[in-house]
Every structure is written in structure tokens, then in C-alpha cells.
């Protein structure tokens, strides 16, 4: 089958759904690749790069739509593109079916199968095709870059001959993929980063990225299904606002990334907060497309308030880094195709029993299959009740307790042991007791010796103990001197097999240890 | 040879055996340690032969043949075995010790012991009984372990319905036969007990999955030690007691350490109740991504720090030197590569495969 990728016609869209690299991989799945001429130019991939990767270049979009069985796109089909759709075509693209009901309806009339890259369930198996995450990652990075572009100071603190430069203080609201990427970028540029999220379980992730988690003293949990946030209660928002009011005058850059699935973005940074900020501060609103987290945000624009705070509402951040975005997005798509083509025979199979494919498929042969049933697996493990951190004092106490307990146990065991020995001593003849002393002492020696053996030598140890255990040959030798033929034969067999064990055991041990010498 | 000289030889041999085990605390000493073991064994055997005039037996020719042929077979087997086949070999060798213990025990019962007092005879019979019992379990257990490791027998745990009840019934049967044996019902009780113990040993190990065999082999190692110690008691031979106890306790501790490393319950291993403690297998999250050689090379080139986790597979593929070369090349590129030796993970319950590589690649 033929996989084609047209030039994106949405204004300002610079990404492309197929790169030379991904095309190579797609061909390995048994497909033939087509590309509309010049589709990769905005991402810095020339037609020649594609040709070298074995992609056929097609002169016009109509030709490409006509020839391809599978269309790979970034943005959902525009009106002009819908008219080009062939029956039974297969489209993989961002669709946003929840927000774009009309698009879905018009597509359904065309008897097509559509996989929406934005509908891939967020389970670990599907991470490799999670285009939302890879785009969010880029957006988070770019948000910091855009902010730095407008910000009048260094990110990192410096002490120079010309004076001291304080480090920039950055607040990231919402620690999803974008938020974490922003934290990481800002952190590596030397800024002091703080982060806030309604889901307490992300605290660890925030801290692992090097930011400080602003803890709200509140017990409600903002985690919703599928690892996303859910709307917060009134009291919670009140507390949250108090926290932000405290932070706003101090913070130089705010990056907001808070989204709740299927709802307009929560207004977490009202005008009041913007007014509280210092002149020259920056707000980057990554939720601008969904209405913005900041009240001042105007989508696709940068506005400057009266108190000289710049509010950036760009919605095309991934597209501003088209090469990187195209690389990641095309890899996501390639993985999607990979899952759609389990036989690697160049024929896609939309397996509706597969959770991931079922979730992504919004149209199956013209039938609307959106919304998908709820995923069977929870995306993120339920938040575990936080264990109370034990103080050093308590830990010490426990340690002493444990030591005492083990001491008590030892005394009890020793008492029992002594008692048992006495009982044996009471009845057993004296020569048995003499052997018994030897036996017990040897057990102790063996016990002490083995704890010192290094972990790496456990296997040779096993081999050497095996060889030594063939000391049983002595028993057999002692029984050789007898008139009883059966005894002699049995003893002889014992000697024979014990000898095999002695020689074999020691030689194997030597061979094992020889491996250590070749370093 | 006088008794004093014999005892002195035994003391020397015991000390050498202790040193042989203790010497494994580090790799340099380990090479010497094996020699201690070998010399100890030679001293012990020669002292026994001359100290007790074993050579006056009419079976002397046969004895020499047995020793010579046994040595040759042992040498050939040890030389021929693949490094990856070592576990099986050790398991097979254990079965020999077990069988020898059974034979010696039976012999001991067959021989007349008129000079013993009643109490002595009683103790002696208990010793015979224990020695044969442990020896028999070791024998069949080791054979099954060998079979599972060399994949002659399926590695799957054989779980018979009511296997615990079965074990307990067999154990009680053995105890009953033991009581009859002690009350002089005749040697047939000992023979039947041996057969039942054979079944117990096989059944215990059959119930354990192939992947968990290493601990089992270590445990059987311990059993073989106890069998030797019991033999020592019945023959009144201190060297046997010392060595048996050494091997027995060290094997037990080793199994215990292994169990801990593998997060297993020690008691359930000894009792063969392994299947009981195994919960549902851990859910594996994420997905295995197959990758081709080219991409691996790319990934390695672009990575900043690399962790290599060697496992049994590397040993099977004989890839130690390849891995070693890989690490040295990565080092040359100033990568922070690191071989994460997995002596604590399950794949290397035979830690040896990894360590041999570790020592070679000096990681």
C-alpha cells in the first residue's frame, strides 16, 4: 500500500508528518512512501533528502491524495482537502474530535478510517506514539526560550565586576509533560524554578527535575482519570490564589500549562496576578489555544500590559521548531503504523480489540467510533497515602528496639540450644558427645566463613563445597576391609563415584576461577 | 601409621578445608584456596588408607581400578563441560555424594556391631537412618535438578494435587519405618525407607521451577554435607563430621543468601514448597521494543552514560569478550559506561557468568 504525506496547508504550520528518517522505517513495514513536493522544506528537509530515503515525490497535492492509500498529516484535513479524500482512504493525523465535531461528521461521509494522534490513550505501551506528549515537550522547551527572548535579564545569577545579577525566578504552573520540559529547560539555563500542580503525586517528578514544589496545605486530590487533572473545588482555588498572590511579586517569569481534558483552561493567573508582577516580567501561556490560563492572554499574540508585563499566547510553539517537531511527530506516526501493521506486509489492519488502536480510531470505515470506551488500565497508579517521614530520633529508637529484639531472640535461641544439648548429653554415651562437640563447632566455623565469601564467588564456592563433600570417600574406604562381599561392592561403588566427584569437582572449580585470571 | 599420626593428618585436612572455603573471600586468594582443598583431600584419603590398613583388603585391585577410572572420568567430564553447563555438572556430582552416603549407611547396617552397648547401638542406628535418609533425598533431588538444568526434564514446576499431604504421608512412613528399624525389625525397613526417601527427594525438586534451580542445587549441596556428617557419626570419624558440617552449614547459609538476594522465603525452599510463596508474576509495565543493530550503535554513540546489564544470556552467547571490548571502546569515547553487575538479580543466581565477565572487562 502507498503512504503519502501532503504539504500542510494550515497557515503558519511548518511541520511535516513524514521525514526522510521515518520514511525509511515506514518502507521497512512494506509500504511505499509518497510526498508532495516541498512538503518538508519548512522543516529543513529537501525533496532530495526524501528521494535519497526512497520516497517518491509527487508534483501536486491532488495527485498525492489520489495515489495514496494512507495519508499522514499533522493538522486535521481542511475543507479543500476533504474534497480530495478517496473512498476507503486511511488518515492518520491530529483531529481533536471532541472539539471538532463538524470535521468528524464531514469525514464520516467519506467512508474513511481515521486515527487521531491526539486520542492515543496515555498508557505506557502507547508512549512511543504519544504525539501530544512529544509536542508538549517541545512547547515546554520553547516557552522558556520565548520567555528568555523577551526577558531583559540573565536566567542564571552572576557576580561580575560590573555588579551582581540575581538569578531569574520562574514559576511553572501545571507539571504535565510541557511543564516538566519547561522546568528542565529553565533549570539548565540557571534559573530558580518553582512549580505548582494540583496533583500531589507529581511532586516527586518536579523535584527530580530540580524545581521546588510549591506545596498547598490542602487534602483534596486534583488527580482525575488517565493521569490528567480534574477541576478543583472552590476552597482549593481560594488557597491556590493565596499562594499565587504571595509568589507573583517575586516571580520574573510565569509559564502556565494547566489543562483539564475536554474543558476550557482554568483561569489560574487572573489579571490581579499580572498586576502584582514586576515590570519586565513575562507570562507564557501554553493553554492559549484552550482559552488561556491567564485572563490577559490573547491567542497567537504577545500583549504588553500597562505595568510592562508581557503576556505571550503563541499557540504554534511546536511549529516554531519545525525540524524537531517533525522528527518527533513523524516517529510517533511511524510507531502508530508499526502497530497498525503487525504483519509488516504493507497492509494496515485496524484491530479494534487493541486498546491503543481502538482509542485512536475515531472513524472506522466511515462509522464514527468516537468517543472510545474508557481504557481498561489506569494510566497512573493511584496516589499512595504519603507515609509520614520518620524523624531521626524515631529511627534511632527503632534501631535500638530492633537490636534489643534480636538480642532477646539470640538469648532465647541459645537457651533452647543449650537445653537440647543437655537433654542429648543426659542420654547419649560420652564418645557421641565428643563427636557432637566437633560437629557443632564445625557448623559454627562454616557459618562464619561463608558470610565473608564475596558475592561474585558464590558459584565457585558451590563447586568447591561439592568437591569437599566427597570426603565421604573416607567412609567408603573404611568399609572396604570386610568379609561381607555386598558391603565391599557397595563400598567400592561409593569409592568410585566419590572419586569422580573429587576430581571433577576440584577441576571444575579451578576452571571457574581461571576465568577470573584473564583480566 | 599410628592413631596419633592419623588424627594429626585429619586435623591438617580439616584446617585445609576451612581455608579452602574461607579463601573464597577474594579472587586472588581463591586460586590458592582450591589447592588447599585438593591437598586436604589427598592427605585425608592417604591417611585413611594407611592409617586403617585399607590396602589389606582382598578387593585391593578393584579399589585401585575404581580410583583410577573414577579420576579419569571426573577429569574428562570437568574438562569437557561447557562453561554454561557447569550448574548441571555440579548438580550431577551432588547425586554421587548422596548415593555414596546411602551405600555407606546401608553397609554400616549390614556390618556386625557386637561390641556396641545398647545405647551406642541405638545412637548408631539413628545415625545410619539419618545418613541414609538425607543421602537418598540428595541423590534423587540432584538427579532431578540435573535433568531440569540440562532441560532433559521440563523446567516447569510439577504441582501434584495434595503434594504436601503426599510429602507428609511419605515422611511419616519413613519415621514409622525408622522406628521399626530401631526396634530391630530388620534391615528391610531401611531399604524400604531408602526407596521412599528417593521418591521424596525427586518429588521435592520436581515441584520447583527450573529457574529456581540454583538455590536448590545449593541446598542439595548442604544436604550432601549433612549426609557426610551423619556418616561421620556412624563411623565415629571426626574428619567426616567436621567436613560434613562445614559443607552443610556453608551450603545452608549460601542458599539463605541467595534466597534473600532473590527475595524468596528460605524455609519454603528447604521444604520444597516453592510454588506456595510465588505470588502472581509481576505485571510488566511498558513494552519491549525490539531494536536493530544499527539503532543500537546509534543509541550508544549518542548516549551520555550507559549501563550494561549482563545476564545469563550473555554467558550462553559467550559474549563476555564482546561486551568487554564494547566497554573499552565506549571508555575510549569518554562515555560513562557502567556494567551493572546483577549479582542481586535473578538472572544471575549463577553470579558466576557475570563475574567472569566483570573480571575480564575490569568493570
Briefly characterize the structure.
Helix content of chain A is 44%, strand content 12%. Chain A has 18 helices and 17 strands.
> What is the H/E string of chain B?
HHHHHHHHHHHHEHHEH
Strand content of chain A: 5-15%
- Summarize model confidence as the mean pLDDT of chain B: 74
Specify which chain pair forms the largest interface. Answer: A-B, 86 and 114 residues
Summing up helix and strand content along with how strands pair, one would put the structural category of chain B as mainly alpha
Number of helices of chain B: 15
Spatial strand sequence of the major β-sheet of chain B: 1-2
Biggest β-sheet strands, sense, barrel of chain B: 2 strands, parallel
Span of the ends, CA to CA of chain A: 54 Å
Q: What's the arrangement of secondary structure elements?
A:
The complex is a heterodimer of chains A (519) and B (363).
Chain A: E1 2-5, H1 20-28, E2 32-36, H2 47-52, E3 56-58, H3 61-67, E4 70-72, H4 79-82, E5 90-93, H5 101-108, E6 113-116, H6 131-150, E7 158-160, E8 163-165, E9 169-173, H7 177-188, E10 192-196, H8 203-208, E11 212-213, H9 234-247, E12 253-256, H10 271-276, E13 282-285, E14 302-304, E15 310-312, H11 317-320, H12 322-340, H13 355-360, E16 361-364, E17 367-368, H14 392-427, H15 430-451, H16 458-469, H17 473-478, H18 485-517
Parallel strand pairs in A: 1-2, 1-4, 2-3, 4-5, 5-6, 9-10, 9-12, 10-11, 12-13, 13-15
Antiparallel strand pairs in A: 6-16, 7-8, 14-15, 16-17
Helix pairs in contact in A: 1-12, 6-7, 6-12, 16-18
Chain B: H1 3-22, H2 27-51, H3 60-80, H4 86-110, H5 118-149, H6 163-182, H7 188-206, H8 213-235, H9 238-261, H10 266-270, H11 274-277, H12 293-302, E1 305-308, H13 312-316, H14 320-332, E2 336-339, H15 351-361
Parallel strand pairs in B: 1-2
Amino acid at each position: 500500500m502507498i503512504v503519502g504525506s501532503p504539504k500542510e496547508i494550515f497557515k503558519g504550520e511548518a511541520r511535516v508528518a513524514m521525514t526522510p528518517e521515518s520514511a525509511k522505517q515506514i518502507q521497512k513495514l512494506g509500504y511505499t512512501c509518497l510526498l508532495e513536493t516541498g512538503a518538508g522544506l519548512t522543516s529543513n528537509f529537501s525533496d532530495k533528502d526524501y528521494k535519497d530515503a526512497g520516497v517518491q515525490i509527487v508534483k501536486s497535492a491532488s495527485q498525492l491524495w489520489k495515489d495514496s492509500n494512507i495519508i499522514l498529516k499533522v493538522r486535521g484535513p481542511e475543507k479543500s482537502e476533504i474534497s480530495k479524500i478517496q473512498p476507503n482512504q486511511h488518515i492518520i493525523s491530529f483531529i481533536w474530535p471532541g472539539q471538532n465535531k463538524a470535521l468528524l461528521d464531514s469525514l464520516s461521509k467519506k467512508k474513511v478510517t481515521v486515527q487521531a494522534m491526539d486520542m492515543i490513550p496515555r498508557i505506557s505501551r502507547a508512549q512511543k506514539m504519544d504525539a501530544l506528549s512529544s509536542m508538549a515537550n517541545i512547547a515546554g522547551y520553547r516557552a522558556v526560550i520565548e520567555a528568555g527572548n523577551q526577558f531583559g535579564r540573565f536566567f542564571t545569577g552572576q557576580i561580575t565586576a560590573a555588579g551582581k545579577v540575581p538569578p531569574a525566578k520562574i514559576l511553572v504552573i501545571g507539571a504535565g509533560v510541557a511543564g516538566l520540559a519547561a522546568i528542565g529547560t529553565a533549570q539548565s539555563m540557571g534559573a530558580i524554578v518553582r512549580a505548582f500542580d494540583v496533583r500531589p503525586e507529581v511532586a516527586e517528578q518536579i523535584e527530580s527535575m530540580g524545581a521546588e514544589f510549591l506545596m498547598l496545605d490542602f487534602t483534596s486530590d486534583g488527580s482525575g482519570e488517565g493521569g490528567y487533572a480534574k477541576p478543583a473545588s472552590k476552597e482549593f482555588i481560594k488557597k491556590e490564589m493565596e499562594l499565587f498572590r504571595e509568589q507573583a511579586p517575586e516571580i520574573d517569569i510565569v509559564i502556565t500549562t494547566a489543562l483539564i481534558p475536554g474543558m476550557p483552561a482554568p483561569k489560574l493567573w487572573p489579571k490581579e496576578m499580572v498586576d502584582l508582577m514586576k515590570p519586565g516580567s513575562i507570562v507564557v501561556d501554553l493553554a492559549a489555544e484552550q482559552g488561556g490560563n491567564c485572563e490577559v492572554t490573547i491567542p497567537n499574540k504577545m500583549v504588553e500590559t500597562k505595568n510592562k508585563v508581557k503576556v505571550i499566547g503563541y499557540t504554534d510553539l511546536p511549529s516554531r521548531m519545525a525540524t524537531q517537531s517533525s522528527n518527533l511527530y513523524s516517529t510517533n506516526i511511524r510507531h502508530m503504523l508499526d502497530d497498525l501493521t503487525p504483519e509488516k506486509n504493507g497492509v494496515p489492519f485496524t484491530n479494534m480489540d487493541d486498546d491503543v488502536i481502538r482509542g485512536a480510531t475515531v472513524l472506522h470505515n466511515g462509522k464514527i467510533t468516537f468517543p472510545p470506551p474508557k481504557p481498561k488500565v489506569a494510566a497512573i497508579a493511584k496516589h499512595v497515602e504519603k507515609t509520614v517521614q520518620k524523624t531521626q530520633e524515631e529511627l534511632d529508637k527503632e534501631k535500638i528496639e530492633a537490636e534489643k529484639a534480636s538480642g532477646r531472640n539470640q538469648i532465647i535461641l541459645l537457651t533452647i540450644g543449650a537445653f537440647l544439648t543437655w537433654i542429648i548429653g543426659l542420654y547419649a554415651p560420652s564418645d557421641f558427645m565428643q563427636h557432637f562437640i566437633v560437629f557443632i563447632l564445625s557448623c559454627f566455623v562454616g557459618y562464619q566463613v561463608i558470610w565473608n565469601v564475596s558475592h561474585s564467588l558464590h558459584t565457585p564456592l558451590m563447586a568447591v563445597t561439592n568437591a569437599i563433600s566427597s570426603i565421604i570417600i573416607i567412609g567408603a574406604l573404611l568399609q572396604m576391609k570386610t568379609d561381607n562381599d555386598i558391603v565391599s561392592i557397595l563400598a567400592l561403588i561409593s569409592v568410585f563415584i566419590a572419586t569422580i566427584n573429587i576430581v571433577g569437582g576440584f577441576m571444575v572449580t579451578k576452571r571457574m576461577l581461571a576465568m577470573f585470571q584473564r583480566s | 601409621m599410628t592413631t596419633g599420626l592419623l588424627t594429626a593428618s585429619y586435623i591438617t585436612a580439616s584446617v585445609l578445608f576451612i581455608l579452602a572455603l574461607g579463601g573464597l573471600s577474594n579472587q586472588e586468594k581463591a586460586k590458592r584456596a582450591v589447592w588447599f582443598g585438593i591437598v586436604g583431600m589427598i592427605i585425608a584419603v592417604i591417611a585413611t588408607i594407611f592409617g586403617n590398613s585399607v590396602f589389606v583388603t582382598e578387593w585391593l585391585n578393584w579399589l585401585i581400578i575404581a580410583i583410577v577410572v573414577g579420576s579419569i572420568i571426573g577429569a574428562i567430564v570437568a574438562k569437557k563441560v561447557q562453561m554454561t553447563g557447569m550448574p548441571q555438572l555440579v548438580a550431577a556430582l551432588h547425586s554421587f555424594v548422596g548415593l555414596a552416603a546411602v551405600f555407606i549407611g546401608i553397609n554400616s547396617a549390614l556390618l556386625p556391631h557386637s561390641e556396641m552397648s545398647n545405647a551406642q547401638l541405638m545412637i548408631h542406628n539413628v545415625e545410619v537412618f539419618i545418613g541414609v535418609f538425607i543421602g537418598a533425598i540428595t541423590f534423587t533431588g540432584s538427579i532431578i535438578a540435573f535433568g531440569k538444568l540440562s532441560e532433559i526434564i521440563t523446567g516447569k514446576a510439577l504441582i501434584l494435587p495434595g503434594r504436601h499431604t503426599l510429602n507428609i504421608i511419605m515422611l511419616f512412613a519413613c519415621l514409622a519405618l525408622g522406628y521399626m528399624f530401631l526396634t530391630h525389625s530388620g534391615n528391610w525397613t531401611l531399604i524400604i525407607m531408602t526407596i521412599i526417601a528417593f521418591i521424596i527427594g525427586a518429588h521435592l525438586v520436581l515441584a520447583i521451577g527450573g529457574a529456581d534451580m540454583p538455590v536448590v542445587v545449593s541446598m542439595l549441596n548442604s544436604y550432601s554435607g549433612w549426609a557426610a556428617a551423619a556418616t561421620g557419626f556412624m563411623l565415629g570419624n571426626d574428619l567426616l563430621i567436621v567436613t560434613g558440617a562445614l559443607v552443610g552449614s556453608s551450603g545452608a547459609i549460601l542458599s539463605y543468601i541467595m534466597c534473600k538476594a532473590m527475595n524468596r522465603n528460605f524455609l519454603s525452599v528447604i521444604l520444597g514448597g516453592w510454588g506456595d510463596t510465588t505470588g502472581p508474576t509481576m505485571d510488566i509495565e511498558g513494552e519491549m521494543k525490539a531494536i536493530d543493530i544499527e539503532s543500537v550503535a546509534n543509541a550508544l554513540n549518542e548516549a551520555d552514560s550507559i549501563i550494561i546489564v549482563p545476564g545469563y544470556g550473555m554467558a550462553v552467547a559467550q559474549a563476555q569478550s564482546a561486551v568487554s571490548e564494547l566497554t573499552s571502546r565506549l571508555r575510549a569515547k569518554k562515555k560513562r559506561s557502567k556494567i551493572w553487575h546483577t549479582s542481586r538479580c535473578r538472572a544471575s543466581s549463577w553470579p558466576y557468568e557475570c563475574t567472569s565477565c566483570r573480571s575480564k572487562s575490569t568493570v
